[in-house]
Every structure is written in C-alpha cells, then in structure tokens.
Write a structure and sequence with these properties.
alpha/beta; Rossmann fold; 9 helices; 7 strands; globular
Length: about 250
C-alpha cells in the first residue's frame, strides 16, 4: 500500500503521514520545506520518498504527477494549503492568487489525474483536506473560505458520480473546525475557540475515509455548528462569521 501526501511538512499532513505509516503504508511526502520532510522520514518506520516542490506553481503540480504516476498510489491526500486574514479590499492580491493556485488548482489537477488512474484499477482513496469553511462565506477570511467551498463541493460532486457508477474508488472531504497547526502563523490570525488536536483529527479522517464517508467532520461542536448553520439566514450567518474572524485578526 502506498500513499501520497501533499503539505506533509507540518500539521495535519505530517500527522496523516504518521497515522498511515503505523498502518503499514509506504509514503511519498511532498512540501516546500525539504528539511522538515527529511526529519519526518527519519521518524517513520516505513519506506518514505521525499519530494520538495512548491505546488503554487502549476508546472510543479504536473511534474509531481509525472514523478510518481508509476508508483501505484493507493491513497492520495491533498492537504497543501494556507489562508490569509484581512478585509478583501486590503489583502494582498498576489498572496490571494497564490492561495487559489495551491488551495484550488493543485487539488483539482491532482484529484483528476490520480482519480483517472484509480478508476482503471477500480480501487483507491482520495482525501481532500477542506474545512468547515467549505459550507460558509467568511468575511475577513474571504478568499480562503471561497477556496474551501470550491474543493468541498467538487469532492461531493465527484463522490456522487462514483456512487452512481458503482465504483470502488472513494473520495472524501475532511471538514474540520480549528485544528492546532501552523495555519494561524501563516494566515496572520488566531482562533478564538479551542483548536482540535491535529493527530486525533488525522486519525479520525483516515479511519472515516477508509470506511467510505463522504463528508468527515471531527468534533461534536463542529457537527452542531454546521447543522445549525443550515437554518440560519444568510445575513445572520455572515454577521456571525465576520465577528468571529474579527476576533481572530492580529
């Protein structure tokens, strides 16, 4: 069994590598920070291939696929991504476009290419790391929320296509609330509610993916929050989200 994990140098990606290594998977781990990937590879007691790539560059996404397409990937985890706090009129456009490239374009390309390979074998798992933000709009974190909406809804649509085709390939969306990772540092903000443990979220996400769950929402609090949000008027939902983000900004 072999898994490919993007954004594996920290947070959920790193912990998913740990979880899958304990399950006996060989790993291909991808990120920009080679030294962190190499440190992780030394920690894991399973074969690990380290690939240093910046997936904000489209050519590198295709390059990654070409590098590993003969590796018979059983499990793809799209996890690379970042956010940016701030009012849309003030945030840096170049950073936002890079976010779109990583959070959307890289996910889209890798999902399509590896899905096509898995369909030929009629087996395999894809886990797209999304967010509870994928069900809402987020003033003061607008571009990030929009990217996660894209990937969440894309994953759900593909899941239904596979279900109707009676395929044994499974695709899932992980939609957590705040998780204790480096997200805050990169996005220049801080969460106002307690963050979930990254390793526990990784364990839960992989277990649910292997069981064929389409939408994976860790923690009871986030399950209740997303359920209640279905019934909230848009203006109320936006007002609440805006105030939550305002408290996060620093």
């Amino acid at each position: 069994m072999k898994a490919l994990i993007t954004g594996a140098s920290s947070g959920l990606g790193r912990d998913m590598a740990r979880v899958l290594a304990r399950k006996g998977y060989s790993l291909i781990i991808v990120a920009r920070r080679k030294e962190r990937l190499e440190a992780l590879s030394r920690e894991l007691k399973t074969p690990v291939r380290v690939i240093e790539l910046d997936l904000s560059q489209e050519e590198n996404v295709f390059k990654l696929y070409e590098m590993v397409k003969e590796e018979n990937i059983d499990f793809l985890i799209n996890n690379a991504g970042f956010g940016l706090f701030g009012e849309f009129r003030k945030t840096d456009l170049a950073t936002e476009l890079k976010m779109v490239d990583v959070n959307i374009k890289a996910y889209h390309i890798l999902t399509k290419l590896f899905l096509q390979d898995m369909l030929k074998k009629n087996k395999g798992y894809i886990l797209n790391v999304c967010s509870s933000a994928g069900f809402m709009a987020g003033p003061r974190l607008s571009t990030y929320y929009a990217t996660k909406n894209y990937v969440t809804k894309l994953t759900m649509a593909i899941n239904e296509e596979l279900r109707q085709a009676k395929s044994k390939v499974q695709i899932s969306a992980l939609c957590p609330g705040p998780v204790a990772t480096e997200f805050n540092k990169v996005a220049h903000g801080t969460f106002s509610i307690r963050e979930a443990n990254s390793y526990k979220v990784a364990e839960y996400a992989i277990a649910k993916t292997l069981k064929g769950k389409m939408l994976i929402v860790p923690t009871l609090l986030m399950k209740i929050t997303l359920f209640m949000n279905r019934f909230a008027p848009y203006r109320l939902s936006l007002f609440i989200a805006s105030n939550i983000q305002k408290r996060k900004m620093r």
